[in-house]
Each structure stands twice: as structure tokens, then as C-alpha cells.
Amino acid sequence: MPSPNPRESRREITGFSNPTVKYLRSLRDKKHRKREGVFLAEGLRLLTDALECGHVPKTLVMASARDPHPLIDALETAVDAAGGDIIVTTPDILGKITGKDNPQAVAGVFDEFDTSLASLDRSAAKIWLVAQALRDPGNLGTMLRTGDAVGAGGLILIDDCADPFSVEAVRASMGAVFTQSVARASWDEFIGWLRQGEGQLVAASLRDAVPYRGAPYAAPCFVMVGNESQGLPEDYEAACDLRVTMPMRGRADSLNAAVAAAVLAYEVLDTLER
Amino acid sequence: MPSPNPRESRREITGFSNPTVKYLRSLRDKKHRKREGVFLAEGLRLLTDALECGHVPKTLVMASARDPHPLIDALETAVDAAGGDIIVTTPDILGKITGKDNPQAVAGVFDEFDTSLASLDRSAAKIWLVAQALRDPGNLGTMLRTGDAVGAGGLILIDDCADPFSVEAVRASMGAVFTQSVARASWDEFIGWLRQGEGQLVAASLRDAVPYRGAPYAAPCFVMVGNESQGLPEDYEAACDLRVTMPMRGRADSLNAAVAAAVLAYEVLDTLER
Questions:
Q1: B254: chain A residues, CB-CB within 8 Å
Q2: How do residues B45-95 score in pLDDT, each as one tens digit?
Q3: Distance, CA of A71 to CA of A90 (rounded, Å)
Q4: Is A142 within 8 Å of B256 when comparing Cβ atoms?
């Protein structure tokens, strides 16, 4: 159903083979996202969060069958004002674009953010999360979400991590990709940057570690977790200012990476706020 | 390369269309698992954990190109002694069975466990995890893994949860599906069972809640989290003995379900061990 006041920036697309649909679908692929410097996010809540954090999509895609909603109207107005595109399509096509059987009513294309270490202001937060070679985009998004919850400044991705701008990571972040800074760096770049200023690097470790409860955390505290199957390289652990252990009462000797980051980050938060 | 002492129970399969391969692949589907009462687990570490916990696969599937390994030999011996089948196949076919591009060297078929509430001994552990309508098998497996880490007795699945015996959940559990009890029940069944004995039901909540740090946790403590998008129904929260809040310093008002369970369970562990 066309809006009563159709905007000039608005167009309707009903064919799967439309080049814009192909373009939008291609953004599910890392190579294309990287080339275009943009990423996809879906869902009214997520796009509204983005808007409230000052991120207006370049392109807004809406399902034509959608019910009227003041938040969608607000998104349309913002995109229109910023000179972006508004595309109205079928729920089927929207599902193809986002790769979901039950697509959300809206999706947006956003410019990728600056992910250089230089863009981070370490004094802006007491906690920062660091992930090394984290391969699972769901874990990565979950870490962003946890970072938001503990008031972290952002997430620093070391070595070859999953793409924080993949649909899966953005989805798992529940909007935190818009509130948390994200930086990508090699280990050498990171450790060089870290040692240029204040910052305590902390990792969960089995080597030469103290109990995670009551450990002497200090702000800005950088909480680091390693790859899902390998953990952190030994020399990365050795470079930490503090190594802590969490109780392991069962057979396993490790936690899921995103879980370990969260348990540790909440402990750090409690210490730093005490 | 055939073993120097080929066992009678051992057979080689090289065709994708072999009925056994079709049967094994079908176990990736919940309907077939349920009908057969079995599930698939993959990976040498996981199968070794299973064996050490007394779970011998009915069928052991191995890639023919595998390197010799004493742990694989131990598995073979155990399966053989228990009268199970040993199947040697190609890495490609093993990949098809487990749905992974880089399959592990071994996979096993196990009988499903008893998942009745009656099978649980609540006095066996101080902590139990409870999930309500948890839809993501990765979250479910992660909760099992966390349960193992905090020394929980098991995971109780309320209402319509993901299948704990799916390949994804088993994989995410990192073997904890073999160390943790799993029960499935409706809410009414669960609350009826819980109230027949000792047990404190705790949930993270925004309603009428106390801070999660320093809350009066008591064993056996049942830590409950709700559905990924809906959270817990209000009446389920109301039925809890203790409602606790975790700090939320950002825009989000909730954590990933498996993360919330872990942060809470580690706090409970600290209180109960103090």
C-alpha cells in the first residue's frame, strides 16, 4: 500500500532479478561488503537503535505488507532527509536479502565504521573487550552485546576474526554494533598501541594466574579472549598484565569465548565500580 | 589403511548412496533422531569424553584417511566390546554425515538419554540450569558447557526448546551433553516437580528484583533464563523464589540468554562455595 505522501526517494521493487535486489543480497558476502564499504542490518528495533545513535541507513528496505508504524515512519523521514534511498519490496524478497525465512519488516544499508585503532579513545570507557582470532560471528556479536551491557567502549579484534559487519554478527549484537566502537588490528599493532598509554591487559589463563574474583583490575581494563578452539597463543598471554582463572568444576577446561568474556567483564565491572 | 587387526564389526563404506550413510545423514533431522532415539556426536575429544563418562557409541564412523591414534583405537576397542558397529568411510562422506566442510576424524551414534524430570537427583549438585523456550541450539549447547564448568547437575528445558541432541547443540556443548543431565518438561510439570523438594528458583528479571551480586542464593539453586527474544513469561518470573538484576550500563536491557545464565551461575557458585 503506497504511503499517503509518497516520497521522491521511494521506489518499489517486486522482481527477484532486479539489480538492486542482487546488490543487496551480495552484501551477505564479506568480499562484496568490503568492496562496497557497507553492511546490512535488519529489524525495526535495531534500525531504531542505530538512528538514535546517529546512524542513518543509506538505503532503507521495507516490506510492502508492513503495518503502519511510527518508528518506521521516523526511519523513512530520517533516510529521506539524509538523501538516502527507500525501497519497498515484498516480504519474500526481503527474506532473500537478509537470508531469513521470517524476515523483519525493515532492513538498512549502512556505511562501515572506521575500525582503526586510532579511532578509539581509551579514556572514554573503563572496560574494553578484545578478541583474538574469534571465528564465530555469533560469538563476536554476543561480545558486542555484552560490551554494551557492561558499559565497555568497544571491541578490538586481533588477527583473523569473523567480520563484525556480517549479518550474523550484527544480528547477535542486538544493536550493539551501533553503540560499541570496533577496531581491527594485528597483535603487533594492538600491543604497540596499548603500550602507548594507560591500559591493563587481562586474559583468562591457566598459566601463572590468580583467581578472577578479587583480582586487581584497573581501568582502562582490556579483557581479552582467544580463538574458540585454540585459545590465546602463549606469548599473547605472557604479554598480559594480569592472568586470571575461573573455576572449572567439571570435565571441561574452558568456557565458550563469549561466555568467558562476559563472566570476566562483569567481574571487572563490579571491581571498578566498587 | 586397514588396521593390522581388522575387527569383525568393521565395515568400509565408500558410496554416498549407501543406506547406512543415508541413515546417518538423516540423524541431522530432529524427526529422524526422535524416531530412532539416537543422536550424532563428532570429534575425537568429544567421543573420548563420552567414553570416559561411560557412553559408548552404538556406531562409530571413522574417516579412512585418518592418522593412527591411540584414542581412536580405544574407541574402536570399546565399541567392538559393546557389540557396536564400526564404519570406515571417506572424509567426504563423513563431512556429509556431520554437515561440516572440515569433518572431524570420527563421529558416533549414541542412544538418547532419559530426559524425564524423574531421572534427576536434585541433591547431586548445588546448581541446576533451567532454560525456557530457548530456540537456539548453540545457546543450549553453550549452557550445557557452562553447566559443566560451574559443576551444575544438569539443564532442565522448559516448554518448546531447541533439541539438546541436535548436532549443533552437541557440538556447542563441547562434550558437556555427556556430563550434564538433561530433562525436558512443561512449565507445570517442572514447577510441580520443583516444589516437591528443596530448591530455590532464581531468574534474572527487571521486576521486583535485587542486585545479582550478594543475593541470598541457596542450594540447590535453579538458575533460569527465558526465550531469546521474549524473555521469561511474567507468571514464570512471579513463581521464582528470587529475582535478580544484572547491571546494564548501555542501551540494551538484556544479555544473550547463555551469557546471562553464565554470569548468574558463576555468581551463585561463588556464593555457595564461600
A1: 174
A2: 899 999 999 999 999 999 886 677 889 999 999 999 999 999 999 988 988
A3: 19
A4: yes
Q: Is B249 an 8 Å CB contact of chain A?
A: yes
Burial of B21-35, coded b for 16+ CB within 10 Å and e otherwise, reads beebbebbeeeebee
Query: How is A138-190 classified by DSSP, letter by letter?
Result: HHHHHHHHHHHHTT--EEEEESSPPPTTSHHHHHHHTTGGGTSEEEEE-HHHH
Q: What is the ipTM of this complex?
A: 0.92
Strands ordered across the beta sheet of B210-211 = B181-185, B154-158, B127-132, B221-225, B200-204, B242-245, B210-211
Rounded to 5°, angle at Cα B193 from B245 and B222:
25
Is the pLDDT score of B262 beyond 80?
A: yes
Interface touch A256/B142, C-beta < 8 Å: yes
| CATH fold of A117-273 | Alpha/beta knot (3.40.1280)
Q: How many helices (H) and strands (E) does chain A have?
A: 10, 12
pLDDT score of B268 more than 80: yes
Min Cα–Cα distance to chain A from B2, Å:
30
Condensed to tens digits (0 to 9), the pLDDT of residues B189-242 reads 999 999 999 999 999 988 889 999 999 999 999 999 999 989 999 999 999 999
CATH number of the structural domain A10-111: 3.30.1330.30
pTM above threshold 0.90: yes
Domain chopping of chain B, boundaries: 10-111, 117-273
